[in-house]
Task: inverse folding
């Protein structure tokens, strides 16, 4: 159809292009390959002495090629437990995978035993952590840690081969004094350099997907920007989907394509980054974005969210944000809202967007 | 005195860099604070920003005399602090207090919240009953419930612990508070609550703050004036808004560029790219150690020219209330 219309007058060009763009997107969506990662109704609970902590309580999302999905939330929202669950890394006990599935490349991770998991951890799903120096072993050189990882996942690699691959891995994350870095111990490198090494180790196994848990939180502003730039480049050059766990909307805007906002163990809003940052729909998302100091507008005080997150052991029956929400209604305290699809690929867990009651209107009427 | 609560002149502090756990051979010296002159006005919030290792925390600790300066003078409310003995310092300590970054670790975990807040009062001889009353008053002031003060710090959240730490710092009715990254370890929604509280207390109690942070966005919002530090030197000082809107020092410009914005159209990518290019450029020529002479930022500066490598620029007065340590802003009459 596009080919038949191609030799048209230039006036129609723009509209025509738009039409193709829309049709193309729709076609792309329909024919999109299976997601690389699919998390379905994941529930990871912790059985503590004081009670059951429902850290992740029914989380679903998918990650496809080229995606950079940001999972945003405050501490205790369950974002890190979600990430650890993808690798089945949550310590059990006290943790327990109560329900749901995690499919990596079509394989159900949560049903696999320790041996099978070795083929997933590192090899299929790479991970980098918040504290770059703490995630490296202080008593071994960078070189030996890289070589160990490479040989662990590829037993045929002999030491020389592995060392060569280690050097390449360091080169790919922007080091130029490779020999020096290979012989260094973690404490001899700066925080930013350690994070690069962490990334090099993660990428050395050619994972299908990378999880970055607060990759820049412990770093200086300038270094932070450099690491984010590196992650973005890796995403583009290697077609590597990335999940970034963060509490910083600046990081979300900088690199993510999609964002899922978590609160008290549940995704509250999910969609494309621009759409959500520009026009947040869930009252929590809106309040959270509001509480980030905005340097470009005039100072008009702070908009803080009053109160604190609910006790994770005694989560309320209704909406988990109800106690802090400005737009709370009677229904919110009784009934947990489901995720309402408000636009293409955008979901909001809020009664205000219940389609049977009309969008944005008061759900009580 | 012209309304300055604190006047710092020629302050200098270096630390020895040692190697080895037992012998601790001295392998070098880092200058954490290098020849700093700074006035903090009575009743203002002075923000201090810089990367890690820029000396901003050391500066605050020097002013409180928690660590001893190598050189320089500190004047607090008309009194010379340098040279005072421990005993002479004691009465002055009531007037200057500190709030740390990590609230949970700065409170005594084995003492209840009440005991934590009362401690400074008891240290200074306030009778126990009176201290108890003041403690309740302080907790109410920071938005906590005094009837829960028998609990231990770990039973409170990070934001609440920071409130407790603020209450403790205010117990002795100080005039000056050194806030060392007070919200950096807190969640965004809680950060805003604490900043609101600090701002409110500052106005109500007419306090003077030195607010250290690596987050320019926060400093811009809370501080009246901002000072930018790099490798122990003050590079720029001025009205927070002005420094933010029109940075003058090349370092400040770059530092601001790498700030991540929530709004669309941030320049961080460009700034990060430029920083990388400059690093590549400098890697061949310079070592990473701070230069002995010349501007501390010369090695990474995109706008450096001849004098930068040889001559260390002092703070030049660029506009009425803006001071910039950069040869680009050398006033014409001072040239030569």
Result:
């Amino acid at each position: 159809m596009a080919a038949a219309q191609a030799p048209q007058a230039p006036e129609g060009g723009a509209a025509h292009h738009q039409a193709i763009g829309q049709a193309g997107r729709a076609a792309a969506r329909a024919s999109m390959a299976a997601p690389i990662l699919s998390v379905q109704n994941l529930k990871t609970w912790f059985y503590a002495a004081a009670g059951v902590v429902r850290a992740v309580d029914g989380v679903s999302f998918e990650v496809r090629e080229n995606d950079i999905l940001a999972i945003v939330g405050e501490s205790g929202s369950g974002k890190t437990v979600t990430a650890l669950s993808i690798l089945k890394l949550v310590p059990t006990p006290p943790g327990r995978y109560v329900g749901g599935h995690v499919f990596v490349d079509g394989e159900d991770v949560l049903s696999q035993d320790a041996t099978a998991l070795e083929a997933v951890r590192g090899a299929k799903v790479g991970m980098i952590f918040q504290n770059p120096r703490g995630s490296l072993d202080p008593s071994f050189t960078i070189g030996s840690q890289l070589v160990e990882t490479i040989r662990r996942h590829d037993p045929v690699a002999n030491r020389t081969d592995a060392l060569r691959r280690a050097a390449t891995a360091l080169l790919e994350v922007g080091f130029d004094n490779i020999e020096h870095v290979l012989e260094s111990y973690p404490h001899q490198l700066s925080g930013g350099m350690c994070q690069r090494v962490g990334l090099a180790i993660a990428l050395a196994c050619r994972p299908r997907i990378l999880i970055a848990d607060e990759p820049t939180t412990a770093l200086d502003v300038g270094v932070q920007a450099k690491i984010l730039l590196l992650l973005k480049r890796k995403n583009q050059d290697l077609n590597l989907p990335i999940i970034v766990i963060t509490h910083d909307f600046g990081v979300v805007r900088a690199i993510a394509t999609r964002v899922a906002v978590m609160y008290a163990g549940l995704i509250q809003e999910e969609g494309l980054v621009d759409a959500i940052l520009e026009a947040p729909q869930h009252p929590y998302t809106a309040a959270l974005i509001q509480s980030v100091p905005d340097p470009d507008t005039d100072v008009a005080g702070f908009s803080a969210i009053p109160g604190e997150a609910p006790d994770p052991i005694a989560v309320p029956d209704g909406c988990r944000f109800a106690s802090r929400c400005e737009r709370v209604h009677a229904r919110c305290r009784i009934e947990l809202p489901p995720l309402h699809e408000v636009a293409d690929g955008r979901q909001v867990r809020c009664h205000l967007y219940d389609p049977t009651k009309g969008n944005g209107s008061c759900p009580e009427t | 005195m012209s309304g300055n609560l604190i006047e710092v002149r020629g302050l200098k502090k270096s630390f020895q860099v040692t190697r080895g756990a037992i012998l601790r051979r001295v392998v070098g010296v880092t200058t954490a604070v290098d020849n700093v002159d700074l006035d903090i006005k009575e009743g203002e919030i002075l923000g201090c920003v810089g990367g890690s290792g820029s000396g901003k925390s050391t500066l605050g600790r020097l002013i409180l005399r928690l660590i001893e300066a190598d050189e320089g003078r500190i004047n607090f409310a008309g009194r010379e602090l340098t040279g005072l003995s421990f005993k002479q310092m004691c009465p002055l300590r009531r007037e200057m207090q500190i709030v740390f970054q990590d609230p949970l670790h700065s409170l005594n975990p084995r003492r209840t919240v009440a005991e934590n807040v009362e401690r400074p009062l008891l240290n200074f001889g306030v009778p126990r009953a009176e201290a108890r009353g003041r403690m309740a008053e302080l907790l109410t002031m920071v938005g906590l419930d005094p009837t829960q003060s028998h609990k231990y710090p770990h039973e409170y959240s990070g934001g609440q612990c920071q409130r407790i730490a603020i209450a403790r710092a205010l117990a002795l009715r100080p005039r000056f508070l050194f806030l060392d990254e007070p919200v950096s370890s807190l969640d965004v929604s809680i950060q805003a609550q604490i900043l609101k509280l600090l701002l409110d207390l500052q106005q109500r109690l007419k306090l003077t703050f030195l607010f250290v942070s690596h987050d320019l966005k926060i400093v811009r919002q809370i501080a009246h004036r901002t000072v930018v530090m790099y490798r122990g030197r003050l590079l720029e000082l001025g009205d927070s808004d002005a420094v933010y809107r029109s940075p003058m020092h090349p370092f400040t410009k770059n530092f601001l560029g790498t700030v991540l914005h929530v709004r669309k159209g941030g320049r961080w990518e460009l700034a990060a790219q430029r920083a990388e290019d400059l690093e590549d450029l400098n890697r061949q020529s310079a070592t990473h150690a701070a230069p002995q002479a010349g501007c501390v930022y010369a090695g990474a500066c995109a706008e450096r020219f001849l004098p930068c490598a040889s001559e260390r620029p002092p703070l030049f007065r660029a506009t009425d209330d803006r001071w910039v340590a950069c040869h680009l802003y050398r006033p014409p009459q001072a040239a030569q």
